[in-house]
Amino acid sequence: MGVRLVVVDDHRLLAEALATALQLRGHRVLAVGTPAAVAADLVVGRRPEVCLLGVAAPGGPGAFDGLRRIRRECPGVAVIVLGPVGELRGVAGAFAAGAAGYVPSDERIEVVERAIGRARAGEAAVAVDVLRGAFDQLLRPAVEPDDEAARLLRLLTRREVQVLARIADGEDTAAIAAGMRIAASTARTHVQRVLMKLGARTRLEAAAVAARTGLLERMADG
Questions:
Q1: Residues 184, 192: contact at Cβ < 8 Å?
Q2: Do 8 and 53 form a contact (C-beta atoms < 8 A)?
Q3: CA pair distance 138, 91, nearest whole angstrom
Q4: Which of 82, 103, 104, 193 is most buried per CB count within 10 Å?
Q5: DSSP for 52-95, written as a single string
Q6: Are residues 130 and 161 in the same domain?
Q7: Domain co-membership, 157 together with 116
Q8: Domain extent at residue 97
Q9: CA nearest 220: which of 143, 147, 154, 153?
Q10: H-helix or E-strand containing 147?
C-alpha cells in the first residue's frame, strides 16, 4: 500500500527525481518542494504520512527549524532526513529536532523506501552505525561555537542589537539614526555602548567580533 508523502530537498532536481521514483513504486506524492526550508509549509498544508527532507548542510544554522515546526504543528507526520553522514553532529541535530529517521542522501531508492515503511510504522528509520555515532555526539557534545554569542546577546539591549546589525551592514551614525528614526546623538550613544559591551575599539572591530562569534546569526534567529 502506497504512502502519502511530501518530498523536499535543497536541490530541486534531486527532489523531483526522488518524487518520480517513489510515484513509480506506487506511493502518492502530495507535494515536491525546494529548498528544505519550505518543508513545514508544505507539510502543514497537506498532512502527509511521511516527509522526506533533503538537507545539504545539516550542521548549518537553522538547518532543522522547519523540522521543529513540523513536530510542533503536525506531530503525526514522520520526518526522514536525507543528508550526508560525514558530519555526525548534523545527524545528531536531526534527531534532537525530532526526526523519525536519517538516511544517507546517496542511498538506493530501495533503502529510502524501507525507511519510509519503518517511519510510518513508528520505528526508527536509521542504520545502526549512523545512529550510534550520532547519539555518541549528543551524549558528549563539543563546546558550541555560539556560547560567546549567547553571552554577548545577554549584555546587549534590544535597541543595541538593532544598532549592531546596522554597524555590521556598514551604516554610519547618520544612516543608523535615519533608519531607526532616532536623533544622531542617541545613535552615537548606542554605538558607544555597543562598542564598550563588545570590548571593541572601532565599528569595524565590533562587526568582526559579531561575525567571529556567530552573533550575527544569533541576531537573525532572534
A1: no
A2: yes
A3: 10
A4: 82
A5: EEE-S-TTSTTTTHHHHHHHHH-TTSEEEEEE-SS-HHHHHHHH
A6: no
A7: no
A8: 4-139
A9: 153
A10: helix 147-155
Q: pLDDT by residue (tens digit) across 23-45?
A: 999 999 999 999 988 999 999 98
* Residue 45, CA atoms < 13 Å, CB-side half-sphere: 10
Whole-number CA gyration radius for the chain: 22
Residue type, 82: L
CATH number at residue 60: 3.40.50.2300
Average pLDDT over residues 139-153: 63
State percent of the chain over pLDDT 70: 88
66-87: pLDDT as tens digits: 999 999 999 999 999 998 876 6
Say if residues 18 and 106 touch (Cβ distance below 8 Å): no
Q: Are 50 and 116 in contact (CB under 8 A)?
A: yes
Respond yes or no on whether the N-terminal peptide bond of residue 35 is cis (omega within 30° of 0).
Answer: yes
Alpha-carbon span 42 to 73, nearest angstrom? 12
- Of 43, 52, 3, which is closest to residue 25 (Cα–Cα)? 3
- 3-state SS of 15-41? HHHHHHHHHHCCCEEEEEECCHHHHHH
Q: Which three cell numbers stand for residue 138?
A: 549528543
